[in-house]
């Protein structure tokens, strides 16, 4: 969406929508009502509209099903090439869609939902805007709203927006300024590239996503430590919730793990000693472990990127995976 006049206006809002207008705000109950009012079905009148739907959608779940439908050999080749977090993310989205299908159809004809259902589900899922309409007097079933106008706004992590509902009007507010002809952005939230790919079907390239993050897996940590027993002891003793890497470096809990794994002591240091470490600690044991981990993750990323780009098959999903891996490489190299 491009600004036709300087924004925001004097009231500070990018967009104002009356929530009682079903053309602008679709809640589940309104959608159900409108569908039941339509006697036409998918007849010749609607065919041109249906046939003009995007044939190459970017949503990762739809892409996954398109591959399964038309090229199962390619997807079976692709899956082993994906690092575990990406493979797990795709699997979890698939299971989520299967659950939605089973809730709607008590006795489905087949275990796999039809391709059209997968397409429709992901289109709705990627466009749902969670708005607390209860503040305006709605009920729990109307707490999720689909705002068609939001499809015109692209995401930027550098802008700040807020949504509020007052006096029956939904308003999108921003503290960013736009001149005539400039593209207007909203912020989908503080999301890393993997989340953006799975939920919205795009990645921010070139390491320009300040929210990008890499979560080392148990397998990654095991590869650099070489001791399953010690790693299990460390993880069971610390029970750490947030183990990740950003452009700013490792999380505090990852520092604790690296310190414990690579300290010269055979036993795990007392918890009091561990939690006395500074979050900027770069002692020799932490530095050594971090260097090993970064090199391991970089090697994993380079291997995945090389394998994916070498596939004798082009699809938008392949291009998105390449962007994801290239951004991951930028993040890792900036941390080394």
Automatic annotation (TrEMBL):
Q: Which SUPFAM superfamilies match?
A: SET domain
Q: A single GO molecular function, which one?
A: protein-lysine N-methyltransferase activity
Span of domain SET? 88-189
InterPro entries assigned to the protein according to its UniProt record, in alphabetical order: SET_dom (IPR001214), SET_dom_sf (IPR046341), SETD3_SETD6_MTase (IPR050600)
**Designated name of the protein:** SET domain-containing protein
Q: Which organism is it from?
A: Taenia asiatica (Asian tapeworm)
């Amino acid at each position: 969406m491009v600004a036709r006049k300087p924004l925001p206006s004097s009231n500070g809002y990018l967009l104002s929508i009356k929530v009682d207008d079903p053309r602008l705000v679709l809640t589940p109950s309104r959608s159900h009502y409108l569908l039941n009012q339509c006697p036409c079905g998918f007849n010749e009148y609607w065919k041109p509209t249906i046939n003009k739907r995007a044939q190459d959608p970017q949503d990762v779940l739809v892409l996954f099903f398109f591959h399964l439908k038309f090229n199962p050999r390619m997807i079976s080749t692709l899956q082993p090439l994906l690092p575990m977090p990406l493979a797990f993310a795709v699997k979890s989205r698939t299971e989520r869609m299967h659950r939605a299908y089973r809730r709607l159809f008590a006795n489905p004809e087949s275990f796999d939902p039809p391709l059209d259902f997968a397409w429709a589900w992901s289109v709705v899922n990627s466009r749902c805007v969670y708005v607390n309409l209860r503040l305006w007097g709605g009920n729990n079933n109307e707490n999720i709203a689909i705002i068609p106008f939001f499809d015109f706004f692209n995401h930027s992590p550098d802008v700040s927006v807020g949504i509020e509902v007052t006096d029956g009007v939904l308003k999108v507010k921003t503290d960013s300024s736009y001149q005539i002809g400039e593209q207007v952005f909203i912020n989908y939230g503080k999301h890393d590239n993997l989340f953006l790919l799975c939920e919205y079907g795009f990645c921010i390239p070139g390491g320009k996503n300040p929210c990008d993050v890499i979560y080392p897996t148990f397998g990654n940590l095991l590869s650099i430590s070489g001791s399953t027993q010690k790693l299990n002891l460390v993880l069971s003793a610390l029970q750490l919730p947030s183990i990740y890497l950003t452009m700013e470096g490792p999380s505090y809990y990852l520092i604790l793990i690296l310190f414990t794994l690579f300290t010269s002591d055979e036993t795990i240091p007392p918890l009091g000693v561990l939690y006395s470490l500074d979050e900027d600690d770069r002692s020799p044991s932490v530095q050594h472990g971090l260097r090993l981990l970064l090199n391991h993750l970089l090697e994993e990323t380079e291997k995945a990127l090389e394998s994916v780009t070498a596939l004798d098959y082009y699809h938008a999903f392949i291009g998105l995976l390449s962007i994801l891996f290239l951004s991951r490489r930028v993040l890792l190299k900036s941390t080394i």
